[in-house]
Amino acid sequence: MSDVREAVTRAHRAEWARVVAALTRRFGDLDIAEEAAAEAFATAVERWPADGVPPNPGAWLTTTATRKAIDRIRRENKRDGKHEEARTLWDVSAEPPGAIDDDRLRLIFTCCHPALAMESRVALTLRMVGGLTVPEIARAFLATDDAMGRRITRAKAKIKAARIPYRVPSAEDLPERVSGVLAVLFLVFNEGYLATGPGTDPVRGDLTAEAIRLTRLVRALLPGDGEVAGLLALMLLIEARRPARVAAGELVALDEQDRGAWDAELIAEGHRLVRERLAAGVAPGRYQILAAINAVHTSARDMRDTDWSQILALYDQLARLDPSPIVALNRAIAVAELDGPEVALAAVDELAGRLAGYHAFHATRADLLRRLGRSEESRAAYDRAIELAGNTAETAYLTRRRDQLR
C-alpha cells in the first residue's frame, strides 16, 4: 500500500504539468484541465491499490483525465461551445516555424503572461504547472485559502477574457517572455530561501525545491538559453548552502557557516553549469553573472580564501547590466573586503535615498559601522534593520549582533 502511495506521489510530481498541459491544449480551458487532472489523480488513489500501478502512469492519467473532462463537458451541455472557444482562444496553428512544440512550455508561458499581475503569475504557475494545492500556495505567501483561490480564479478568468493565446511566443518576443518566466521562478525560490513572513519557517525547503524543479523543466525545454542555465546554477549554489544557513532558529552568516555541511553535489552541478556558460563564449546575462558570483563563494574552503577581486569584477559587470541600488549595495560588501569598511560605508551611504526601507541596507551599514568602532551608530542601524526584517531567523541574528555591541 505504501508503495502505491509513493507511486501516486511520484506520478503527481512528474506528470501533473504534462497532464494539465495536454488537456489545456485539447479543451482550451484551464478550469476543465485543472479539475479533470485532479479527478484523475483522485481516481488513481482509489484504483491503483487494487489494479496495480499502470506500466505508463502518465498515459493512464492523461487518458483518465481526458475522459473526466469529456464527461464534464457533456454534463454541462456545452461541448460545442467549448470546442469553438478552444479554436478561438487557444489556436496554436499560428506557431512560427521551428517553435518549441511542448505543451508544458506553452502552459508555463500562459501562466507567466505579462498581462497578469506578478502575484497572479506566481500563484497560477505553482498551481497549474507545479501542482501545489491552493492551501499550500496560500501558506507560502501568507494569504487565506479563500483569497488565494480567488486570485487563481481571477487569473484564469483574465486569461480567457484577454484572449491570451496558449502558445510559445514568437522568436522575437521569446527572450523578453523567458525573462518574465524566470522572474516568477526566482521569486518563488527567494520566498523559500528567506521567507518573508514572521509566522512561517525561516527557510522553506519545499518552495526552493519546487522552484528548482520548475527551472529544471524550463531548462529541459529550452536547453540553449543561457539565462535559464544561469538561474538554475544560481539556485543550486544557493540551495547547497541551506543546511548551514540556520542554527537554533538563527540565521548563520556566510562567514560563520560550516562549509562542510554544504551540499557538494549541488555545488558541483552549479559549477558545471557556470563553466558551460563561460565556455559558450556568449556575453552573460544577469542570472549567469549572479551564478558566477556564487560559484566564487562556494569555491572557497574558508571565508579567508574568497577571491574578492573576482567577485568585485563580476559585480562591476553586473552593474552595467543592472544598475540597481541592490546591486550597488552587494558590490559595497565586496569593496569592504578589498578597500576597507570606510570606503564601503561611503558607497552604501550614497544609497540611503533609494534603500531607506530595505532592511539589508541598514544591516549592511550596521556591520560596517561596527567594524569601524562606531558602536552607537551601529546599534541604531541594527535597530532599524530589525524593525524592517520579516524573517524570524534573520531578526534573531541581527538582534544578537546588536547585543554584542554592549
Automatic annotation (TrEMBL):
DUF6596 domain segment(s): 177-276
InterPro entries listed in its UniProt record: DUF6596, RNA_pol_sigma70_r2, RNA_pol_sigma70_r4_t2, RNA_pol_sigma_r2, RNA_pol_sigma_r3/r4-like, TPR-like_helical_dom_sf
Database matches in Pfam families: DUF6596, Sigma70_r2, Sigma70_r4_2
Domain of life from the UniProt record: Bacteria
Organism expressing this protein natively: Amycolatopsis deserti
Keyword Transcription regulation: yes
Protein name according to UniProt: RNA polymerase subunit sigma-24
Gene: rpoE
Gene3D superfamilies to which the protein is assigned, alphabetical: 1.10.1740.10, Tetratricopeptide repeat domain
